[in-house]
Amino acid sequence: MIKEVCVENFSEALRAQSLGASRIELCENLHVGGTTPSYGTIVLCKKYLKIPLFVMIRPRGGNFVYNDLELEIMKNDIEICKKLGVDGVVFGILDKNNRVNTAHVRELCELAEGMSITFHKAIDHCTSPIEALRHIKMIGMIDRVLSSGGKESALEGKEILNKMIHFSQQAPLIVVAGKVTNENIDQIKDQIPSKEYHGRKIVGSIE
Known about the structure:
By secondary structure, the chain is of the alpha/beta class. 36% of the residues lie in helices and 16% in strands. The chain has one domain (2-199): Copper homeostasis (CutC) domain (TIM Barrel, Alpha-Beta Barrel). It has seven helices and eight strands, in the order E-H-E-H-E-H-E-H-E-H-E-H-E-H-E. Helix 5 (129-139) runs parallel beside helix 6 (158-168). The protein is globular and about 40 Å long. The relative contact order is 0.14.
């Protein structure tokens, strides 16, 4: 079972690693759902972490509908991550109708070739997560989808999450998120069987 820890600075990344994290998702500004971390933070995390490092590619908080300049920012950040040898990137783009923007997502996927790709919780803002997952499968370059089933917590969204897991058939892999902690991970795993789980406290307190 993979335990991915969401952190927003270098110290938290080291702490999570010491507590047994399988992988780090590195962000900043988690109060708005996470944005792209600084260049310096990525460099140090890549230097000192011994576990895989995934980096959030998100130019701002708010919705997931981006204009051309914001898309350009995301492309530049992906190129930086590739040059730094980052293991994976995490992003998601929707259109104005809250459907997966397949054209823009495909552009970023092609640019991120060689790194692992996660489509993040933008999918939880889609009207139909299964339809969104179908579009993601059609793109064909995305390894993982991070979701809480459209709810605040994984347990609340377990019906949708299990439908997503059944539909995806591990391509892409559904990473279960939403208030997953070291205290409830066993319960969540029993009710939502997956190979990977994501949370800020999934290996305990990192603050």
